[in-house]
Amino acid sequence: MKKSITLFFLLAFIGILSSQSSTRQRTLVQKDSIKKSKLVLETQDKKIDSLVNVLGIFKPFKKEAHASYYADKFNGRRTTSGRKFDNNKYTAAHKKLPFGTKVRVTNEKNGKWVIVEITDRGPFVKSREIDLSKRAFMDITSNKGSGGMLVTIEVMDK
Fold first, then answer.
1. What's the whole-model pTM score?
2. Using CA atoms, how far apart are residues 56 and 72, in angstroms rounded to an integer?
3. Are 115 and 103 in contact (CB under 8 A)?
4. Which of 8, 44, 65, 146 could tie 129 with a disulfide, CB 3.0–4.6 Å?
5. What's the Cα-to-Cα distance from 89 to each of 7, 64, 78, 127, rounded to whole Å?
């Protein structure tokens, strides 16, 4: 009996996730009552709007760009912008974008993305477009052993 109830809720949850629209977010909220199995569907438009306000609106900059990450030897050194580089922060190096620009970098293979700030110049290899900090790179890569990947770069529109 427990397995069938769990299966029912799992299928219901998958059905709800697949029917979500891009403008509204639906969530399942469990009401505190005697019957714990009762789930109520609520729409939460305010959270999506506040998320857009916090993150901003991104406009496409470049698709199929090659990304890599900083080597550990650069940790603690000064960047071109004057900041101290930290491989555990969400920063990046780009050849042309201004310092302080927020950029969303999306892995084209798995759809994972991070928002990084441009703090340095580089990469100084013709085939690469952006160098990410190690933390940002590892958050979006599908293969932790790889040194590069194809990404989509979007710049925050202010």
1. 0.65
2. 31
3. yes
4. 65
5. 40, 24, 14, 24
